[in-house]
Amino acid sequence: MTLDLFDPAELPERQALAPGAVLLRRWALPSEAALLEGIEAVVAAAPWRHLVTPGGLRMSVAMTNCGPLGWVSDRSGYRYQATDPESGRPWPAMPAAFLALARGAAAQAGFPGFEPDACLVNRYVPGARLSLHQDRDERDHRHPIVSVSLGLPAVFLFGGQARGEPTQRVPLQHGDVVVWGGPSRLRYHGVLALQEGRHPLLGAQRVNLTLRRAG
Ligand code: MD3
Ligand code: FE
After folding, report:
1. In what order do the strands lie in the sheet with 14-18?
2. 154-211, pLDDT tens digit by residue?
3. 156 C-alpha vs ligand 1 centroid, how far in Å?
4. Domain boundaries, position 63
5. Residue 5 resides in a domain
6. 102-158 pLDDT, tens per residue?
7. Backbone torsions φ then ψ of 37, nearest 5 degrees
8. Domain count, the chain
9. Is residue 4 part of a domain?
10. Which of 3, 114, 161, 188 is most deeply packed, by most CB within 10 A?
């Protein structure tokens, strides 16, 4: 047996990216079927949509939400709200598999007791990207954020506490889970434009679940 460090399948399962930031490679694989079913149920009740930034730009990433609170953006700003602005109804319930995954991953990363009340679901097709930003719309930044990558691989940009600081590139693949907490919680981050490709289960897309305690 040789250890091929260039084969992503051979890399260690748990990797500290920075203080408070832990990458759990393939952590979501055992629940992939339940996660995909959950995404289908959420999208059936609250379809994908392209939000507009306060500056009037249409985001290339399509989004929806589930759980008690959902993240939205429009000309008046960014916020969490309990209802889907498209339908006026509450966001669909958080699928049990999302909740179980988030609790387990957070505990594994050193954040026991994490209870998310918001899950933003992001869909990237080739060319879609997320520019460098901080997540600061949540009430209490002491709670970590759990992110789950499904489908096509992406390159995640992990910056510093200020926008101008150098960024680290972290390749994220299907099933990878990252827990961002503690001193990493307010670091700048983004996602490079998705490359073309086909994933056996998801086709030409990447879906990211971002689980947060927002309220
Ligand atoms: C690093 N989504 O929706 S979650 C977002 O892949 C967002 O769709 C990304 O950033 C995506 O806001 C990645 C990863 C993430 C979330 C919060 C962080 C990384 C973070 C907070 C601090 C540092
Ligand atoms: Fe973010």
Report:
1. 14-18, 21-24, 177-180, 145-151, 206-212, 118-124, 62-66
2. 999 999 999 999 999 999 999 999 999 999 999 999 999 999 999 999 999 999 999 9
3. 9
4. 14-212
5. no
6. 999 999 999 999 999 999 999 999 999 999 999 999 999 999 999 999 999 999 999
7. -60, -40
8. 1
9. no
10. 114
**Is residue 135 situated within a structural domain?**
yes
Dist. CA 110–CA 181, nearest whole Å: 9
CATH number for the domain harbouring residue 102: 2.60.120.590
Contacts of 71 (CB under 8 A, 6+ apart): 63, 65, 78, 79, 80, 118, 120, 137, 214
Residue 7 is assigned to a structural domain of this protein? no
Ligand 1: does its nearest atom lie under 6 Å from the Cβ of 138?
A: no
Assess whether the C-beta atom of 122 lies below 6 angstroms from ligand 1. yes
Q: What does the longest C-alpha to C-alpha distance in the chain come to? A: 58
Q: Give, using CA atoms, the residue closest to atom 5 of ligand 1.
A: 210
pTM > 0.85: yes or no? yes
